Amino acid sequence: MIQNFQGMARKLTAKLRAEGISNPAVLAVIESTPRHLFMPESLAHKAYENTALPIGQGQTISQPLMVASMTQLLMQHDCHKVLEIGTGSGYQTAILAQLVDQVFSVERIAELQYQAKRRLKKLDLHNVAMRHGDGWQGWKTKGPFDGIIVTAAASEIPPALLQQLTDGGVMVIPVGTTSQRLIVVRRFGDEFEQKELGQVKFVPLVPGATV
Ligand code: SAH
């Protein structure tokens, strides 16, 4: 059992700051969010290390630096209504929920979604709506979104997600199979501007199916 996570969380945010995360709101939320509640208890002692960890079903909770970088990218664009693809543990969802007005999150594995929902409720985060379904399709009836974050690597940018961005909206998405890059897409009317950032490593955005 982790009794006092604040000290460990403070060390983690110091590391993130040293790695270039500068948005004070993002750092503050990471520092106050109990990441150890988003994983199996047997791994909780590693929760404040800067690493991805297994959460069951062959999936992982993303590395804190990746969560911080992607969140910081979205926050640069004044996002209020965000779509997340790949709820997983719900940790990234929890971070976003404390920074924006509304989060919509889609996950294909029902068991992971169920656990994530319970964790968010326990933390009193109620501005999140979840959907069990295929992230390649986004969540059309709730869109458009001024921010979209995809936390699994897509073989190509899902066309449905582009259509669910507002004019001026921004999407952060890892793209690629064996080698993946983080891509930032901005919508300007019917034009989409793409910027390629560094190399990343995510579990795949599984095509189509639901489990
Ligand atoms: N943000 C999460 C990352 C979880 S890993 C966290 O930090 O915990 C990526 C998640 O994407 C997995 O839970 C996986 O089941 C989910 N996923 C993969 N393909 C998907 C798809 N097509 N639609 C919805 N979710 C998908």
Automatic annotation (TrEMBL):
Its EC number is 2.1.1.77. Coiled coil: none annotated. The lineage of its organism: Bacteria, Pseudomonadati, Pseudomonadota, Gammaproteobacteria, Alteromonadales. The keyword Transferase applies. This is Protein-L-isoaspartate O-methyltransferase. One of its GO terms (biological process) is protein repair. It comes from Pseudidiomarina woesei. Keywords: Cytoplasm, Methyltransferase, S-adenosyl-L-methionine, Transferase. Catalyzes the methyl esterification of L-isoaspartyl residues in peptides and proteins that result from spontaneous decomposition of normal L-aspartyl and L-asparaginyl residues. It plays a role in the repair and/or degradation of damaged proteins.
